[in-house]
Specification:
Helix content is 17%, strand content 16%. With 143 residues, it is α+β, with helices and mostly antiparallel strands. The relative contact order is 0.18.
């Protein structure tokens, strides 16, 4: 699905899709004594920036980032800066089951315009090697 509005506030993009131009919310800043206000960073976070952040997370047992492995199923970008990531793991008994979602949350929260991040681990549909990108297959010599 390319986009989805929930209550008029959420936009949902699948990891391999490009969003339409997202509206940016304006924010007024007040500072004492006429100091310059910091640049506004509110609005919908950049999908590309969120994907780049997620791509910094690697499964410690596989030398490929989790985005290229196909572990990211959905990214919801909200106008208020919230981001929800739906991801899976290679197996339910994955030794990194606790640390990978936490690393994704931490990486996404560092992106400009992100006010908070939520990472949900899902098991349906189950992950399989067909979800890997061509780059991941090359890196793992799986052609």
């Amino acid at each position: 699905m390319s986009s989805d509005k929930v209550g008029g506030t959420a936009r949902t993009f699948q990891a391999d899709e490009t969003p339409a131009d997202a509206p940016k919310a304006g924010v007024s800043h007040w500072t004492p004594d006429g100091e310059e206000a910091p640049a506004a960073t509110s609005g919908v976070p950049s999908e590309d920036a969120v994907i780049e952040a997620i791509a910094t997370v690697h499964d410690p047992e596989i030398p490929v980032n989790i985005y290229e492995l196909g572990l990211i199923y959905a990214i919801d970008l909200h106008e208020d800066g919230r981001v929800r990531v739906e991801m899976t793991l290679t197996a339910p008994n994955c030794p990194s089951a606790q640390e990978l979602p936490a690393q994704v949350k931490e990486a996404v929260e560092k992106v400009d315009c992100v006010t908070s991040a939520e990472v949900d681990v899902v098991w349906d549909p189950p992950w399989d090697m067909s979800r890997m990108s061509d780059e991941a297959r090359l890196a793992l010599n799986m052609f």
